Amino acid sequence: MYQKIFLVSMLFLTGSLFAQTKGVSSFEENGLFGFKDKKGKVIIKPQYEQAMEFTKSGVAFVVSKNKWICIDAKNKFLLESFLYDNGPDYISESLARYVEEGKMGFHNERCQKVIEALYDFAYPFENGYALVCNGCELQPEGEHKRIVGGKYGILNKKGKIVLPIEYEAILNIDAKRRSAEVKQDGKILNVKLK
């Protein structure tokens, strides 16, 4: 009974988010972007440096003060996206990275924060796991950046640390065997994930 009510509630919420943004499109005025509904009525006045269209999940990524942020149809700030390839981070395995107070975490397609921003850097999820590090930093290397220093660990999609953040490097993850090849004190080791 409760499952049916929950499912109907989720379908209604998803449908109402889509209905709020169906027919909404971005427009430019005096070099700034805003959004209009399908009748041409301005629903979000031009204020953003760039704008992507609203997704089926009812959110849009826009540039404000040189940062990609996620907003809802009421122009509410939801989060700051991690900048990847000159735009907001891509969804990988239903999650993408966000930035908060200099730390990284993960959000879902509705820009809801799913994994708290606790890491100096996080790689996208792959096969159910993400590499994370603390004490590391991004250093410019030509037009790109690379991660240097710090200690590395592994996170699962529930946000649980399955390998402590204490290794010099993580060279390989074997999701089937729930193990990883790591570098510690200059040695290569195979360790089990929790």
- The coarse overall form would be elongated
Oligomer: single chain
Q: How large is the share of residues in beta strands?
A: over 45%
Strand order of the largest sheet: 4-5-6-7-10-11-12
| Name of the level-1 CATH class of the largest domain | Mainly Beta
How many distinct helices? Answer: 1
- According to DSSP, the number of beta strands is 21
Characterise this structure.
With 194 residues, the chain is mostly beta strands. The chain folds into 2 domains: 1-81, Thrombin, subunit H; 115-194, no CATH class. The chain is 10% helix and 55% strand. The chain contains 1 helix and 21 strands. It has one helix spanning 2-21; strands at residues 25-29, 32-36, 42-48, 50-51, 59-64, 67-72, 77-81, 83-84, 87-88, 96-100, 103-107, 113-119, 121-122, 129-134, 137-141, 144-148, 151-156, 161-167, 169-174, 179-184, 187-192. The two termini are 35 Å apart.
SSE order and pairing:
Elements (H helix, E strand, L loop, with lengths): L1 H20 L3 E5 L2 E5 L5 E7 L1 E2 L7 E6 L2 E6 L4 E5 L1 E2 L2 E2 L7 E5 L2 E5 L5 E7 L1 E2 L6 E6 L2 E5 L2 E5 L2 E6 L4 E7 L1 E6 L4 E6 L2 E6 L2
Antiparallel strand pairs: 1-2, 2-3, 4-5, 5-6, 6-7, 7-10, 8-9, 10-11, 11-12, 13-14, 14-17, 15-16, 17-18, 19-20, 20-21
